[in-house]
Design goal:
This protein is an alpha/beta fold. The chain has twelve helices and ten strands. Helix 8 packs across helix 9. The protein is globular, with a radius of gyration of 19 Å.
């Protein structure tokens, strides 16, 4: 469960403690998140203003929402005097990629439990980069991975700090809520927020952090009605009013990491017209869903939307052929 103190006070206390870790400051992680207008003809045509949270530009490796879900977990690991971090993910996991970099900065060991026994570090760029940062791997069957997802503490040992897949625990939710406090804007001006949903950790945290009048739209990257039940249960545990959030389970386009030509064409077209790179697993589907919400007038004319870019662009390399942001459009 989250701490009982008021959210703002709790976050301020954690941030003050975080500032005492100079090695993290040395990574260049900013305290403020840039928010910028996102001009796009379709938004203009429907009279909707969309602003973009550039969490994707936070850090070259620790991008998007990954830092926020991990930072308070790292503090807790330090408090407990742990000498090793262990977490879970797929072969292209943005979460494990970021964790390896942070563990190296803290000079603490890291273990990644990876779904699928067939993978090879030497042939996978993400795994290779994480290994060069010092992370070691344990490859497990998909069945075993599901078991560990339900009971990660089956891998507990003395001095080891466990972080669930995607950083999805109370400290991860609290860290995600802190994203709102880092925004360089007045969030009360927005009618809606929008974000991709994986484990639901970032989604729940943002819902806690945003003003109650801002309706938060989540776009599930995973297939199945169970996602609606899982997110509803999470929101109920956090005492979040049902009217303040809406989860789409219809925009996954076939399931987790499933892509089609129209999605890839949209990502290319959007990048060419806006200069913003998206990826097909999370942010590309979330942006398409936002457009659908606008066209259906679920988000009516006159609305102002805050779209959170949750990063994950390193995962573009996991597609065949590898997808890359347009090199002709510089990062801002």
């Amino acid at each position: 469960m989250l701490p009982h103190a008021p959210l703002t006070e709790t976050i301020a206390a954690y941030e003050s403690e975080l500032d005492q870790l100079p090695v993290l400051s040395a990574l260049g992680l900013r305290h403020e998140l840039v928010v910028e207008p996102l001009p796009y003809k379709l938004f203009d045509a429907y009279g909707v203003q969309v602003d973009l949270v550039r969490a994707d530009q936070l850090h070259p490796v620790i991008s998007g929402n990954k830092w926020y879900k991990l930072k308070y977990n790292l503090l807790e690991a330090q408090r407990q005097g742990c000498h090793e971090l262990l977490s879970f993910g797929g072969v292209w996991s943005n979460h494990l990629h970021a964790l390896a970099c942070l563990a190296a900065a803290l000079k603490i060991s890291a273990v990644g439990v990876v779904r699928g026994e067939e993978h090879d570090v030497a042939t996978n760029p993400m795994l290779l980069e994480a290994a060069r940062q010092g992370m070691t791997f344990e490859f497990v069957s998909r069945q075993r991975f599901r078991q560990l997802r339900d009971d990660p503490f089956a891998m507990a040992s003395v001095g080891r700090y466990l972080i669930p897949e995607g950083g999805d625990n109370p400290l991860g939710v609290l860290g995600a809520a802190s994203m709102v406090h880092c925004l360089r804007c007045d969030v009360s001006r927005y009618t809606h927020g929008a974000v991709a949903v994986g484990t639901g950790c970032t989604y729940a945290g943002l819902r806690l952090g945003l003003p109650s009048q801002v309706k938060l739209l989540g776009v599930s990257a995973l297939k199945g009605a169970w996602m609606q039940r899982a997110i509803a249960e999470k929101m109920t545990q956090l005492n979040v009013p049902e009217a303040s959030w809406l989860l789409s389970t219809q925009h996954h386009r076939g399931g987790f990491a499933a892509v089609d030509e129209s999605l890839l064409s949209f990502i290319t077209e959007f990048r060419d017209n806006t200069g913003v790179a998206l990826e097909p697993v999370y942010t590309g589907k979330a942006m398409l869903a936002l457009i659908d919400f606008i066209q259906q007038q679920i988000i009516p004319s006159g609305s102002r939307v805050l779209f959170i870019h949750s990063g994950g662009l390193q995962g573009l390399r996991g597609f065949k052929p590898p997808l890359e942001p347009n090199p002709d459009i510089p990062d801002e």
